[in-house]
Structure formats: structure tokens, C-alpha cells
Amino acid sequence: QSALTQPASVSGSPGQSITISCTGTSSDVGGYNYVSWYQQHPGKAPKLMIFEVSNRPSGVSNRFSGSKSGNTASLTISGLQAEDEADYYCSSYTSSSTLYVVFGGGTKLTVL
Amino acid sequence: QITLKESGPTLVKPTQTLTLTCTFSGFSLTTTGVGVGWIRQPPGKALEWLALIYWNDDKRLSPSLKSRLTITKDTSRNQVVLTMTNMDPVDTATYYCVHRLGGGTFDYWGQGTLVTVSS
Question: Mind telling me how many Å the CA of B109 is from chain A's nearest CA?
């Protein structure tokens, strides 16, 4: 069981917007602005899409945005495209015991 | 340009020790703030953070695996080595080497190496 809770799957049609949630605790998501989101296509390494809650690395489309409220972070993808179909993982810095970072269980995004 | 590449055995037997090497380029592990870590992913499952080593040799290990893990660095060779003892079939996974951006963020990932534990 992962430390952060994500929905197992979400879906949307091309052009639509979807949001993926990531729920933790005050020891991780709620306590730090170090939430990241990764995109993973089948057979590929994860790719950083959002860091520090809402920042996009250079080269990542502005269709991807992140936010946080309390112990829940969210990734929103607007203008869905077929290439967005992938698994998405959230992660957070944590002060739980000596753990450094925790991941969510992942969300499979299907573009209908 | 930052690159990382994992190397090591693809198959290990139960109870054996796994040794993985991460060879990187484009940055130095002597630079303040830099860190290199390991993350694994069992087939069809989620990512799991394992270990991190900093430029100053400070180390962080996953509490659930701490007794089995060792992480070291060789700055002259631009390498980080992860060892995991007493391997079990449940440790079958793709193991990724990662570059730490800051906080708990990893901005560059190796291609990953699949390690299968089987007799």
C-alpha cells in the first residue's frame, strides 16, 4: 500500500481537461511544498512533469499544471491529447521517520 | 546534458546480494546540493524510493529496507553503487538511478535495469 493515495484510473476525451488527486498527510503533502508529478509511458522511465507543487520543468507543456490544498495535491491536464495517455505518479518529501520521499500508487490515464 | 545509466546483473538467486552501479555524466557529486538516488518499480506496480546519497556523503535509506541496503559513491568515477542483501523474488523490479533536483524531486532518470530474482 502506497503512502500517497491516487485514483487507480481516470479518463477523458481529446480536448477535455482531467484532474488527478494525490492525498497524503500533514507529514508529507500537507507539510511541504515538495510535491512532484511524473508521467510514465509503457516500458519507459518516468518523466518529471511538475515539481514543488506547481512548477513545470523546461520543455513540459503548459497544458500540465499542479496545485495543492491541505493534504491533497492535484495534477490537471487540459486540452487532452492522445499522447497524454500514460501512468502518472505523485510524490512528496516527507518527515515520516527517516523516509525521504513517498510515492503514490499511480493513476492510469486513458484518452478515449 | 545529464545522463545516468544503471548496470548490474539481470538475474540473481534468492538470498544473494545485488550490486547495481549507476554511472552518470553532466554533473559532479562533489557539487554542493547534488544527490543521486535509487528508485525501483516491480512489474505492473508503483514506484518505490530506496536510497539517496548526497555530495557530502550524507545518506538516506528507506526504513523498510534499511537493514538490507548500502549506498556509496565514487566521485572519481562518477558512480554510485547500491547493494541489497538477501534478495527475494518480491525484489524483482526495474531499478532506476535518479538525479535529485531538490526536496524530493528527481529530474533525470536512467533507463532502468530489470532485475529478476529467481532460482
Answer: 7
Amino acid type, A26: S
Rounded to a whole number, what is the distance in Å from the CA of B62 to chain A's nearest CA?
Answer: 6
Distance in Å from the first CA to the final CA of chain A: 28
Per-residue pLDDT of chain B (119 residues; tens, 9 = 90+): 999 999 999 999 999 999 999 999 999 999 999 999 999 999 999 999 999 999 999 999 998 999 999 999 999 999 999 999 999 999 999 999 999 998 889 999 999 999 999 99
- Alpha carbon distances (Å) from B11 to A76, B4, B68: 39, 21, 18
| Torsion B42-B46-B50-B56 (CA) sign | positive
